[in-house]
Structure formats: structure tokens, C-alpha cells
Prior knowledge:
Layout: H1 12-39, E1 44-48, H2 50-64, H3 68-89, E2 94-98, H4 111-124
Parallel strand pairs: 1-2
Amino acid sequence: MAEARRIPTIDPRLALKLIAVLALVAALLWAAWVSRELSAPRQQMVTVRLAETIAAFVDAEARSGGDPEASQARVLAFLKASERAVAEMGTGGRVVLVSEAVLAGDAPDATEELKVRIMRQLAKGEPQ
Length: 128
């Protein structure tokens, strides 16, 4: 009779070592991913309608009929306060996008927060 062919098999010890190495590599990759996710600062993107906010203030000043020099000073103070407010909003991993300049998609609108911060800046007065 013809000799039966033996099908080659993998040594069980070798297979166990291979599985252990693959499990170790997978665990290290998972640990690296978790470390990166936990240590990376979260960025939040928000939009503000800055041009609309400034235009509304300038229009209100123009309609007030007050002294032009005083009105100009108030507009300048408002512009400086808006600049400081946007810079303040952009701290702590937050990205502030001016909605007139970008298509922000589903980024939340923080214009009301901007207005509150501008009014707070104006109430504090000019920093020295």
C-alpha cells in the first residue's frame, strides 16, 4: 500500500507563543491609544457672528445722535472689548471661528456668549 501523507501541523507550543506575542502587541497598542485619548486636550469649535455684532453696535451708535467724538470713542472701546472677548473665548482648547469667514457646519453658535463677554469687558473698562 501507498504510504499515507502526513498533513503538516503547527507545533502547539509555537502557536501559544505566537498568540501571546500578538496579545501583547494588541495590549500595547490599546494602551497607547487610551493614553493618547486621555492626555490629548479636547478642542471645541464654536462660531460667532462678529461682523453682525459689531455692525449692530455701530448702527445703534449712529442712531443715538450723540456727540461724534464720544460715539467714536465708544465704538473704539467696543472693538477693543470684542477683540479681548474673542481672545478670552479662545482659551482652554476652544477654537473660535468667525462664521462670516468659514462654513462651520454643525459647530455651535456662541454669539450670545460673545456679547455677554464684550459687555463685561466694557463694564471693566480699558485695561492699563
